[in-house]
Amino acid sequence: MKMTVDFEECLKDSPRFRAALEEVEGDVAELELKLDKLVKLCIAMIDTGKAFCVANKQFMNGIRDLAQYSSNDAVVETSLTKFSDSLQEMINFHTILFDQTQRSIKAQLQNFVKEDLRKFKDAKKQFEKVSEEKENALVKNAQVQRNKQHEVEEATNILTATRKCFRHIALDYVLQINVLQSKRRSEILKSMLSFMYAHLAFFHQGYDLFSELGPYMKDLGAQLDRLVVDAAKEKREMEQKHSTIQQKDFSSDDSKLEYNVDAANGIVMEGYLFKRASNAFKTWNRRWFSIQNNQLVYQKKFKDNPTVVVEDLRLCTVKHCEDIERRFCFEVVSPTKSCMLQADSEKLRQAWIKAVQTSIATAYREKGDESEKLDKKSSPSTGSLDSGNESKEKLLKGESALQRVQCIPGNASCCDCGLADPRWASINLGITLCIECSGIHRSLGVHFSKVRSLTLDTWEPELLKLMCELGNDVINRVYEANVEKMGIKKPQSGQRQEKEAYIRAKYVERKFVDKSSILSSPPDQEKKFVSKSSEEKRLSISKFGPGDQVRASAQSSVIAVNSDEARRESLFCPDELDSLFSYFDTSSKLRSIKSNDSGIQQSSDDGRESLPSTVSANSLYEPEGERQDSSVFIDSKHLNPGLQLYRASYEKNLPKMAEALAHGADVNWANSEENKATPLIQAVLGGSLVTCEFLLQNGANVNQRDVQGRGPLHHATVLGHTGQVCLFLKRGANQHATDEEGKDPLSIAVEAANADIVTLLRLARMNEEMRESEGLYGQPGDETYQDIFRDFSQMASNNPEKLNRFQQDSQKF
Question: How many domains does the chain have?
Answer without folding.
Answer: 4
